[in-house]
Design brief:
The chain folds into 2 domains: about 5-200, DNA ligase/mRNA capping enzyme (D-amino Acid Aminotransferase, Chain A, domain 1), CATH 3.30.470.30; about 210-260, no CATH class. The longest helix is centred in the C-terminal third of the chain and has 18 residues, at about 285-300. The chain starts with 10 loop residues before the first strand and ends with a helix. The strands form 4 sheets. Strands 1, 4, 5, 6, 7, 8 and 9 form a 7-stranded mixed beta sheet that branches. Strands 2-11-10-3 form a 4-stranded mixed beta sheet, with helices on one face. The chain has a 3-stranded antiparallel beta sheet with strand order 13-14-15, with no helix packed on it. By secondary structure, the chain is of the alpha+beta class. It has helices at about 70-80, 100-110, 135-145, 165-175, 255-260, 285-300, 305-310, and strands at about 10, 25, 35-40, 45-50, 55-60, 85-95, 115-125, 130, 155, 180-185, 195-200, 205, 210-215, 225-230, 240, 265. α4 packs across α6 (about 285-300). The model is unreliable at about 235-250, about 260-280 and about 300-310 (pLDDT under 50). It is built from 7 helices and 16 strands.
Length: about 300
């Protein structure tokens, strides 16, 4: 167990009941430079794990108690043996291709299934009597990584990469991931939106065949849901369902009738499948290995003058 008192900026204090989470603001291009680190953007539920002795609570981003829904995660957090802590992370379910899927997570919740749950812990807000919010992100993550060093699933450390943001995003999109979260590693924990956390999403587009759609009950001349398939996603087109609200924009039924509607590929899990139908495995460890290899090749190819311009 690391000595929390030695963490620069750590201060003694009472365990908070709840801390408003830090939230990422959207950006068109991911930042780069020595002050930024990048993490995979997960597709799940943001959860704070609060440990107070033997009492463990899992709190949503609004402070709701979801401990019973994720009891397997709560039991794993209790097994860490921490006297008191507040961990920030995300509960997810990974699909067959290794991608996190909110749809599958919600399905598991409906079925009271917990064997596939994973908790990606990426920040440590409080630990063993010390408030770590004033400490830098990189120091908080260092302590968290030591705590989780030999911990088996369902708890996983949320890895990060100190590399060119555009390179990390490009690899994420190529592997069918939703995008990345870029964070200032030198700043304290800040609640709410701001320039300290930025999210970059994959914007690739694809054409899909519309099999049918249901009119929205909430807005006139809009679509509530569609049923579609991508002929190029596999040797035999599969039927897939998509909710327009997940793409972030309202879909007009007239656009579908005219055949002019296009959707982001990242909204569909076919993005993780080769055109010949082979599945792409995108495990977290494999993702970081591929990024690091590419970054090392790029660094070796740069001249000293190029390297000075990275920040």
């Amino acid at each position: 167990m690391p000595d929390i008192a030695k963490v620069r900026g750590a201060r003694k204090g009472l365990l908070p009941t709840f801390v408003e989470p830090s939230l990422a603001s959207p950006c068109d291009k991911p930042p780069s430079g020595p002050r930024w680190i990048h993490e995979i953007k997960q597709d799940g539920y943001r959860i704070q794990a609060r440990v107070d002795g033997k009492d463990v609570k899992l709190l949503t981003r609004k402070g709701l108690d979801w401990t019973e829904r994720f009891q397997a995660i709560a039991d794993a957090v209790q097994a860490l043996g921490l006297a008191s802590a507040l961990i920030d992370g995300e509960v997810v379910v990974q699909d067959a291709a290794g991608l996190t899927s909110l749809n599958e997570l919600q399905q598991d919740l409906r079925e009271s299934r917990q064997d596939r749950l994973r908790y990606f812990a990426f920040d440590l807000i409080y630990c063993d009597g010390f408030d770590l919010r004033p400490a830098s992100l990189i120091d908080r993550k260092s302590v968290l990584q030591q705590i989780l060093a030999s911990v088996p699933p369902p708890i996983c450390f949320g890895e990060h990469l100190e590399a060119d943001g555009s390179t990390v995003l490009a690899h994420s999109c190529r592997l069918g991931l939703e995008g990345i979260i870029s964070k200032r590693k030198d700043l304290p924990y800040r609640s709410g939106h701001g320039e300290h956390w930025l999210k970059s999403k994959c914007r690739a587009t694809e054409e899909f065949v519309i099999i049918g759609f249901i009119e929205s009950t909430a807005a006139k001349r809009s679509v509530g849901s569609i049923s579609s398939c991508s002929p190029r996603a596999s040797t035999r087109p599969r039927r897939t369902h998509a909710s327009p609200s997940r793409s972030g924009s309202r879909i007009r039924s007239s656009a579908i009738r005219r055949g002019t509607w296009r959707v982001p590929t990242a909204s569909y899990r076919e993005a993780a499948t080769h055109r010949d139908g082979r599945s792409t495995s995108v495990s977290t460890a494999g993702f970081w290995r591929s990024i690091k290899k590419c970054t090392q090749r790029r660094t070796a190819a740069r001249s000293p003058r190029d390297s000075r311009n990275l920040g």
